[in-house]
Fold:
Amino acid sequence: MRLKHYFVLLAVGIVLLACIALIATFHDGGESIFSPPSQGGAGGGSAGGGYLFYVTEGFIVVLLFYLWHFYRKTIRPYDTLIGGIELVRALDLTTSLAPSGQHETDIIVRTFNDLLTRLRSEHLKLEEQYTFLNLLIEASPMGVIQCDLDGNTTTMNPAARKMLSPTVEETMRALPLGETTTMRLPGEPQLFRISHLSFPDRGYQHPFYLIESLTSEVRQAEKAAYERVIRMIAHEVNNSVAGIVTRERLTALAAFVTRFADVVKIPQPQLLLCDLSEEIEACRPFLENMCTQAHVSIDFHLTDEAIPVHLDTVLFQQALINIVKNAIEALSPAPASPPAPLSEGRRGSLRQGEKGVVTIEVIKHSTPFPHLGGAGGGSLIITDNGHGIPPNVAKHLFTPFFSTKPQGQGLGLLLIRDILTSHHCTFSLLTDPADRLTRFTIHFPS
Structure:
C-alpha cells in the first residue's frame, strides 16, 4: 500500500472520529444532530447546544482544510520524488524536478537534481568512451573476439573475421585462459599470435581473444637475416676465390649466392592495371615448353571475361614460373619410402605409370571475398596431381631455408611469397585430402 493510501485512511479515520464526537455531544444534550438548535426560551442548555454545534462544524471544516494542506505539502512532493526515481530507473536523465515550495522537500529535490546532473554527465562520458572503444576495436588491425561466460563467441571485429579459420578456432579452444601462443597456418605464410585473456564485468571474468598478425614483422626480421647470410656467403666466396678452386666449384658457389640475392633484391612492384587471363596467356608458351621437357601435361582454363588486376608483369610471371616449376617437381617419380605420407596407407594421387598433369585455372569473382574484406577481384589456381604435401610439411611452407628436396635451399616458395605479398594477394598451398590434388590458390584484390 502506498503512502498516500495510508494518508487517506488517516484522514477518513479523523473525520469519522469527529463525527462520532459530534453525535455523542448532541445525544447527551437531548437534541438530534439533524434538528436545528432551539430558538430561545428553552434555557441555557439549548443555547449551549447551538453554540457547540457551530463550534463542532467549524472544527470539522478546519480539520478538512488542514488535511488538504498537509496532503499538498507532504504527499504530493513525495509522489514527485517517486516519479523522479522512476525516470532514473528508465534511464531518462534529461528531466529535473521542480521545487515544491516546501523547505524540507526542496532540500531533497535540490539534492536529487544535483545527483541527476552528475549521473547525466557520467552517463554521457561512459557513452562517449564506449563509442570510442567500439570504433577503436572495429578499426583495429588486431582481431578481437568477445565470449560469454560459457566460452561462446558473442562479438568479433572485422579483423578477427578475416583472420578466423578452422585452424585458428582449434588453437583458440585449446588455449588456456591467461596464455599466449603463436601459430602458422598450414600451407600459408600467415603467422598469428593468439592471446586468451579476460576482463572483469559485474563481478565476473568475461573471456576474450586477441589475434595479432605477425607476418609482416617476421618477414622483415627474415629479410634482415637473409642480408646477413648474403654477407657471410660473400665472404666465404671471396675466401674460396683467393685459393685454388675448380671451375665447377665456382659455378656452384655463384649459383648458390645468386639464388639468395634474388630473394633479397626483389624490387618494389610497378603495378599496372592488367587482365589476369592475358598475362597468363603471354606466359603460356614458356610454361608449355617447361612441361613438355618434363613429360608433363598442362591444361589452361582461362576466361574470355576480363579480370582487371594490378600487376607487375615481370614479377608476376617470375612467381608463376616458379609455382609451375614446383608443381612439375612434385610430379617426379615418388621415392620408395616417402618421408611423410599424406595419411596412413596413402602416398598421393600420382600412381605408377600415370601421367602428371598441371592445371592453370582463372576464376572471376563478382562478390566480396569474406576473408579479404574487399569486393570483386579474381583467383588463380595451379593444380597438380603429384604426391601431395603432408600435414607436417604444410605448416613449415613459406619459412626460410625449409625444403624437402635433397639439394633444395628453401628459397623458391620464399621468392613466391614475397612477390605475391607485394601484390597484396592472399594465397595458400595445400593438398586436399578428398581428391588428393595439390592446389596453389592465389586471390587477387580488385
